[in-house]
Amino acid sequence: MATQKNKTDKKEYTELEFTDNGFVASKLIEWYESNKRELPWRDINDPYKIWISEIILQQTRVNQGMDYYLRFIDRFPDIHTLADADEQEVLKYWQGLGYYSRARNLHAAAQTVVNDFGGIFPNDYHSIIQLKGIGEYTASAIISFAWNKPYPVVDGNVFRFLSRLLMIDEPIDTNKGKTLFTKIAGELMDVSQAGIFNQAIMEFGALQCVPASPNCFTCPFSEKCFAYSESKTEAYPVKLNKVKIKNRYFHYFYIRINDHIHIRRRTEKDIWQNLYEFPSIETTEPLDFEDLKKSENFRNLFPVSEKIRCKLILKNKKHVLTHRVLWMDLYQVELCEESESLSSYLKIPFSELDNYPVHRLMQFCLEKIVNQ
Question: Which is more confidently placed, 72 or 307?
């Protein structure tokens, strides 16, 4: 087992000496073989399918991501199919997963592989990490799972397990911390079983060494874990920076004239880029309808406000993203006549809306409209 320097001697953690002779790796792999979940992207060496699964799971729980993965692979079974697809269709199959830049990057990277590598997924780390949307973790996962190359993966599960095991106070959200944990994971790895080791250490953090109230009594490392020995498992991993949460306020307008509605595509570099939505107004603070009517954006959207009727049908719907909390009001609008201000919006039959990829707030809107 690794020996930890006395914290009072101010030694750097990079001086940790590993003398476990494969203990950690063998225990992890033994645990993994008995406890791993049966998942469709497990026990395969197809880099394309591994890549798709890893991108889906970046911001998505396994249970939620499973159906999306199966549908995505069914529609885009190989990299040529994905590269040849229209981006709007790719976004449609991604709808509901959120963080849509992942889908756009997948599409762009697939085209790079087809154009620059003849449609053969590259098998060297440098080429993989150059692909759009692929970082160190994803590149390491692909190359180790597909080709058993010894590149350690370090995700939240790995940070948690190693920080508790060695009681490491180095914050995980710093470059120094990431470098340290990657070094430790690499030194602990059984290089002859790199892919299985990486899957095992991630699965162990996901199922056994969980964030809150881990069951340390059944842990195969309980006798070796520094944090457990000092009853400090909940204190690890250490983070330096607290994420600043920003509130954003959206007011959507469901404008239906006969059987047609108005939508627009979000083209700005912001959340939900290239996804469709109803006409909307974003404000810096929550506003009721009377205050909203006084805003310049409202007057631009509805120049003759006395000729419209607005009915609030959804209020203060909350949607949480990583660094933002979104609040949404939805209004149903009746117009006496169609305003020229709506000419910049796409007018489509309501029945065709399902052909357009929409974001999660729009899904909330549509659920409310259908069920009202």
Answer: 72
Are 253 and 329 in contact, with CB atoms under 8 Å apart?
no
Q: Which residue has tokens 């106070």? A: 169
> If pLDDT is split at 50, 70 and 90, which confidence band does 21 have?
low
Helices (H), strands (E): how many in the chain?
15, 7
- What mean pLDDT is reported for the chain? 90
Cα of first residue to Cα of last residue in the chain, in angstroms, is: 62
Tens-digit pLDDT profile for residues 235-250: 999 998 777 889 999 9
* Pairing mode, strands 280-283 and 308-320: unpaired
Q: Which amino acid is at 16?
A: L
By C-alpha distance, which of 272, 294, 273, 295 is closest to 282? Answer: 295
Is 54 one of the catalytic residues? yes
pLDDT at 306: 56
Statement: residue 16 has pLDDT above 50: no
Distance between CA 70 and CA 41 in Å, rounded?
Answer: 10
Closest CA to 96 of 366, 367, 357: 357
C-alpha distances in angstroms, 130 versus 182, 212, 281?
Answer: 19, 36, 38
**Token reading at 163:** 């920080």
Name the token pair of 337: 């006549």
Which of 15, 30, 33, 54 is labelled catalytic? 54
| Dist CA 193 CA 148 (whole Å) | 7
